[in-house]
Amino acid sequence: MCHRKELRDFVDQDPVMRILKPKRITDPKDPVTVPATLDNRFDAAMKLIRLLKEAGMTPGSFDADALFDLDLDVIQTTSRELFQKLRILVGEAPQNPDPRPLTTSDAIDNLTVSSHYASAAEDGSDTSSEPPRRMSLGPSAASMLEARSKIRRSSPARSSRRDNGSAPTNQPTVTESSDRSGGTLQKFFNAAMDRYLDEEREANKVPASTRPQH
Fold this sequence. Notes:
The strands form 2 sheets. A two-stranded antiparallel ribbon has the order 1-2. A two-stranded antiparallel sheet has the order 3-4. The protein has 2 domains: 2-90, no CATH class; 104-206, no CATH class. The model is unreliable at 101-137 and 169-181 (pLDDT under 50). The relative contact order is 0.13. It is built from 11 helices and 4 strands, in the order H-H-E-H-E-E-H-H-H-H-E-H-H-H-H. Helix 3 (41-54) runs parallel beside helix 5 and helix 3 packs across helix 8. By secondary structure, it is mainly alpha-helical. The chain is 56% helix and 4% strand. It starts with a helix and ends in a 10-residue tail after the last helix.
């Protein structure tokens, strides 16, 4: 019981957890995966979000800028401390020396909405001259962020297919974005999320009974 209280206190008090505002869905039951040491904040944040999901939690509405303003060490320290507290409760999952390759379903998981707004950074609107807009991202945005990370990690294989002239032509935005630098990827994501949030706000103004059925 005291270990569960320590976990609750950690989630309530840790600075990174306070940004993510995780919400508990279920109690942690299954063994958790030890977080890997990464070299960029984007992937480190994705690892932390996945660890939260393993623990039966999902991020609440959080500020993406505040998350990416943190040092890499701060994010990874939070992941390690969260893992240690969870391991006491549910144990550690065995590490797979040969990680499961990224599948097509992984790459497009939760990306249906994301791809619809992906052209926000490609439609001629240049956000480089504007100050970054602060936004709140809900659980669906966290899933979109995670999907972007999956696509980014699959970029070497896709680059090879492109060199051979066999890359599919119906996914230019997703493929091209996977090869961009971390800073450009973040700008791409921010622009897409700006459009997503704007349209969400507009949709919320319309009574549910009058919204078009999809």
